[in-house]
Amino acid sequence: MNLKYFAATIVGILGIINYGDACTGITLHARDKSTIVARTMDWARTETNNMYVIVPRGHIQTSLTPNGKMDGMQFTSVYGYAGIAVESPDFVIDGTNEAGLSAGLFYFPDYGEYPPYTASRHDTSIADFELVAWMLSRFSTIDQIQDAIQNITVTNIDPSASTAHWRITDATGRQVILEFIDGNAHFYESTVGAISNSPGYPWHITNLNNYINLKPGTAGPVKLGGITLRAFGSDSGMLGLPGDFTPPSRFVRAALLSNYAIQQKTGYDSAMLAFHILNNVDVPLGVEFNSGTATNNMPSATQWTIATDLGNKTIYYHTMYDRTIRSIDMNNIDFANVKFQYAPLDTAKVQTIIPIKVK
């Protein structure tokens, strides 16, 4: 990274980590045993510099530290990987490696706490925005990450910024949520397959008990005082599903809609279904600000959505500018010889529209 680009990156990323917003993730399992991890990436206050990244084996990365220098932990890629980054190709937000391990960063304000940063341990310290890159480059299983993370210090680039938490899924379909609480790493098994933001993951699981009455299908009819009450339409079994955009409500929608979804035959079918489910947690830009106070006029607070088929090692994504789905087939990448590369998610910030030719 050249110094000019590095300086611009620091300015951009400090603004982002202090003003992060919402992201929501779901997990689906296809009948062909493929696991699909999908999520939105939401930032409302500014349009991030979004890019896809291809990282070969042998790529060397050195982490930033709170002193503003690239003098943190250095690590070399054992596995090649692909993913989506913001502001800098080093800051991978969501990606998957050639061993089938997937990792993603989600905003986690007010409830997390990293271990204190000590300059004397700079060579074993890593910025939270680079933890996904570290996991994807070095490991193939969750067990390996659980062991290795005890020997490093995860820190903020800016000590005043919020913390993050992570969703990690390996090729077996096992999934965990990693949160730092009181300076210690906690791994929570994720069988529900949903994630949003604060509060902590155990709280979200407990909160699902408030929606025990929700189920697919149509409720009723029921007798009441001599009359029969009937639903106005189908889907009334989900009446009461929270519709706002707070993390608890998005978590409930993500958990229920993904778990009640019809299981698809293939990983591809499931990935396409994931995009439809995640439409239910897209965040319209207008609801993020008090009336008349919006800082920009982007198409959406949901800047991009990604769905990764771990079984077939294919990444799909679309953006707020162009909802045409694009794909990265990792089976076609020679990670031993491919060059480190990155490029914007959109070649043009405009929706692809295919006109219908009427004869």
The helix-strand sequence is HEEEEEEEEEHHEEEEEHEEHHEEEE
**Number of E-type strands:** 20
Kindly identify the CATH topology: Penicillin V Acylase, Chain A
Distance between termini?
A: 54 Å
Spell out the CATH superfamily.
Penicillin V Acylase, Chain A
Q: Helix content range of the residues, please?
A: 10-25%
**Average pLDDT:** 93
Strand order of the largest sheet: 13-12-11-8-7-6-3-20
Label the structural class: alpha+beta
Described by the principal axes of the CA atoms, the overall outline is globular
What is the domain tally?
Answer: 1
Indicate the CATH architecture: 4-Layer Sandwich
Give the low-pLDDT segments. Answer: 1-8
CATH class: Alpha Beta
Largest sheet: 8 strands, antiparallel
Strand % is: 25-35%
Rg (C-alpha, Å): 21 Å
Quick structural gist:
By secondary structure, the protein is α+β, with helices and mostly antiparallel strands. Helices cover 18% and strands 28% of the residues.
Describe the structure.
The protein has helices at 3-18, 131-138, 142-148, 201-207, 247-259, 267-278, and strands at 25-29, 35-42, 50-55, 60-62, 74-76, 81-86, 92-97, 102-108, 125-127, 153-155, 163-169, 175-181, 184-189, 194-195, 222-224, 227-229, 302-309, 314-319, 326-329, 341-344. The protein has a single domain (3-200, 263-344), classed as Penicillin V Acylase, Chain A. β12 (175-181) and β13 form a beta hairpin. By secondary structure, the protein is α+β, with helices and mostly antiparallel strands. The strands form five sheets. Strands 13-12-11-8-7-6-3-20 form an eight-stranded antiparallel sheet, with helices on one face. A six-stranded antiparallel sheet has the order 14-1-2-17-18-19. Mean pLDDT is 93; it is low at 1-8. The longest helix is centred in the N-terminal third of the chain and has 16 residues, at 3-18. The protein is 18% helix and 28% strand.
